């Protein structure tokens, strides 16, 4: 069964995350298929932009906790780099929940839109973790005060707040106009414009990717994180929240 479906129409290649049984978690297989889809779109002369969307009520829930291990942070960094490094714009359409690594994937996209059903939360601190590697594309784009609040509290928020703080570009009603604009761009114009727009994010990757990957791996290996992830999978409160 394919976990990332591909289609193309009028210059837009659509990659659809289709693993609803685990809320489109970033399993090794899903990541591999998504990387392949991005690479294929990058080589396709007829593709002006990539639209990344999803099935089910979750855009992406983050790491697949059943596969959690020391290579997970590195795999997420590779995926985010692939999105940012693609010489074609990547647009995310979210009409469901986005959590943890899913927010990093969202942040790596050049443009994003959210529907009324979208919700967002940085839940890492509740699991004994921190939003380490996902900060690479997010902190250059987020309002600093909002980042502090939502990183620390894990509160859930909706599409309007996501737009206000810079996590999302616009509401879903803007998608057609965005895609129409991208179709009108030349390959060279889009590539060089994207390079300008992502310069600060790319600098963050070059500067901090190694240290934040090490931090994430250290936290995942900790006793607190094991308790947090076990409590999540067992649908109970961790010991520090009782």
From TrEMBL:
Family, per entry = Belongs to the enoyl-CoA hydratase/isomerase family.
Give the CDD domains listed for this entry: crotonase-like
- The protein's name is Enoyl-CoA hydratase family protein
Alphabetically, the GO molecular function entries are: catalytic activity
Q: Name one Pfam family in it.
A: ECH_1
Species of the source: Streptosporangium nondiastaticum
Q: Please, which domain of life does this record's source organism belong to?
A: Bacteria
């Amino acid at each position: 069964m394919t976990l990332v479906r591909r289609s193309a129409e009028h210059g837009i290649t659509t990659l659809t995350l289709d693993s609803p049984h685990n809320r489109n978690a970033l399993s090794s297989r899903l990541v591999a298929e998504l990387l392949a889809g991005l690479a294929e779109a990058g080589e396709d002369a007829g593709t002006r932009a990539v639209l990344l969307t999803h099935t089910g009520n979750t855009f992406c829930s983050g790491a697949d906790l059943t596969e959690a291990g020391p290579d997970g942070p590195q795999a997420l960094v590779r995926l985010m780099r692939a999105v940012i490094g693609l010489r074609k714009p990547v647009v995310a359409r979210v009409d469901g929940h986005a959590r943890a690594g899913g927010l990093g994937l969202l942040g790596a996209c050049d443009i994003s839109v959210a529907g009324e059903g979208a919700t967002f939360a940085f839940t890492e601190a509740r699991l004994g973790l921190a939003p380490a590697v996902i900060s690479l594309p997010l902190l250059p784009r987020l309002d600093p005060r909002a980042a502090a609040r939502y990183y620390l509290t894990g509160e859930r928020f909706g599409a309007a707040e996501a737009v206000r703080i810079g996590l999302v570009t616009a509401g879903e009603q803007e998608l057609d106009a965005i895609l129409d604009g991208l179709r009108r761009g030349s390959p060279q114009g889009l590539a060089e414009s994207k390079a300008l727009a992502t310069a600060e994010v790319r600098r963050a990757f070059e500067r901090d990717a190694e240290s934040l990957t090490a931090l994430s791996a250290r936290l995942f290996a900790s006793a607190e994180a094991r308790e947090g992830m076990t409590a999540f999978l067992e649908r109970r409160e961790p010991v520090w929240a009782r």
